[in-house]
Design a protein that fits this description.
globular; 73% helix
Length: 471
């Protein structure tokens, strides 16, 4: 089940909200737990048992870890908990990738390929794995106390708004909200507005751009001229942002309706004046996870410069591999790691000298080239596409799809409006303003119009899952 579907918008969500708010406060976590199990089982019925079993096992491992008096026992139980979480991720996400590479190596030596049963990837496995790890490690470090109730822990791990594609929520960020939270109608309304913004991003922008991008990349890439190639990758750049940030908006909005305050996941990333800044603005919760649970334990920047550069490369290579079990994702991670190192060596000084807007333009171009590596899994096709970007083979670009052109212009405008003072005011008003009564009326009318328009658009277009569901 996905947020941008009729089954969710017209049936599941209304039924859940009615049931949730008629349930007494002290029992609402049970309602949320039941809804989350149904939500996940609808999309991945074969994996719900493993997910639930691993969640229960992790709860008791952490509980026993905290009761253990010997540090060696605490370390052992912490390691077992992390091993269980990463083991599931490694098996389901990287099993096929590993066997394919083993067979490729065997083929080089003339050996027969090893036969194996293809493993289906459960949706959202990376996100609940990361949340399990944050709970285990933060509890081991003493940042938070272990949860008292198993049901509350399952709610934390499997809460349906952010179970499938984040944001990644550390337990200490919402610990108090799981046990007790207030439900204010003003917060519910803001949550509803945020949900509609995300739904509109997905259906009215990302899906429109995605259909055109798929059409162009589904043909012979070598025949694309330079101008069309740049429009294709620019459209995909917008599609990916509005798709993923749209899901985050919907998750944050649903959480707010239920009294939760989830962390922000995006901060106008294409306004960045460097790759370093881009990663502080893009998928913020993943960046925070990588920093706290990988980069800093490796030594971070509290070491020699060569070691710091090595740490950055390791983090971004693993970040690339996390995004997908394919070599193009590893190359994409190495690509970003390379520019992060270059910025620390000399490129950061160049950006300061040339000023903000030229730096934003250069960074945007670098990011778009990176998204080409991200989007096109076949390495040969990816290289062909990148050569088309820089072949300077310009031809008259004839795009007859007026809806696509209009949507791309709107997407670019929304992506860069915050670079300007008035744009920041608009963004602050939309996302962070406490509305007066008459403002609520106006915004509610606009939100209802966008909601109905999105549902109508959804019913005349083909189904399009969220891009990050496969991660």
């Amino acid at each position: 089940m996905v947020f941008s579907s009729n089954i969710f918008l017209l049936y599941f969500l209304p039924a859940f909200l009615v049931l949730y708010f008629v349930t007494p406060n002290k029992f609402r976590n049970y309602t949320l737990l039941l809804a989350s199990l149904i939500f996940y089982a609808y999309g991945a019925p074969d994996f719900i048992i493993q997910l639930t079993a691993s969640t229960i096992l992790n709860f008791f491992l952490v509980k026993f870890m905290c009761k253990a008096k010997k540090q060696s026992v605490r370390k052992l139980l912490c390691g077992i908990s992390i091993f269980v979480s990463l083991g599931l991720l490694a098996y389901y996400k990287y099993g096929n990738f590993t066997m394919e590479n083993i067979n490729a190596i065997r083929g080089l030596f003339g050996s027969e390929p090893v036969e194996w049963m293809k493993i289906l990837l459960p949706i959202g496995i990376s996100f609940f794995t990361f949340q399990s790890i944050t709970y285990t490690v933060d509890t081991y470090r003493g940042i938070n106390q272990p949860m008292r109730k198993l049901s509350d822990y399952i709610v934390y791990i499997m809460m349906f708004p952010q179970l499938i594609a984040g944001p990644i929520v550390r337990y200490n960020e919402i610990a108090g909200q799981i046990e007790h939270r207030e439900h204010k109608w003003s917060e519910c309304l803001h949550g509803f507005y945020r949900f509609v913004i995300g739904l509109s991003k997905k259906i009215l922008i990302a899906d429109v751009l995605g259909r055109w991008v798929d059409l162009q990349l589904g043909g012979d890439i070598a025949l694309l001229d330079t101008g069309t190639s740049w429009i294709v990758i620019m459209a995909y750049t917008m599609q990916l942002y509005f798709d993923f940030s749209g899901y985050s908006d919907m998750a944050i909005g649903l959480g707010r309706i239920m009294g939760f305050s989830f962390p922000e996941n995006f901060d106008n990333p294409y306004n960045s004046a460097s790759i370093s800044e881009f990663w502080r603005r893009w998928h913020i919760t993943l960046g925070s996870f990588m920093r706290n649970y990988l980069y800093i334990p490796l030594g971070g920047n509290r070491c020699s410069k060569p070691r710091m550069y090595f740490n950055l490369w390791v983090v971004f290579l693993l970040s690339g591999l996390w995004h997908g079990a394919s070599w193009n994702f590893v190359i994409w991670g190495a690509y970003h790691g390379f520019f992060l190192v270059m910025e620390r060596l000399f490129l950061g000084k160049v950006y300061k000298r040339i000023g903000k807007f030229p730096s934003v333009l250069i960074t945007f171009i670098l990011v778009m080239v990176g998204w080409a590596i991200f989007r096109i899994e076949n390495i040969g096709d990816c290289w062909t596409f990148i050569t088309r970007l820089f072949s300077f083979d310009f031809a008259a670009v004839n795009i007859h799809d007026a809806q696509f052109v209009t949507t791309l212009v709107v997407a670019l405008a929304f992506s860069f409006v915050a670079l300007f003072g008035f744009g920041k005011k608009v963004m602050n008003f939309v996302y962070y303003t406490e509305y007066s009564s008459w403002q609520h009326i106006v915004v509610w009318i606009v939100a209802m119009f966008l909601l109905l328009f999105s549902i109508a658009a959804l019913n005349v277009s083909s189904f399009s899952p969220f891009i990050y569901f496969r991660f």
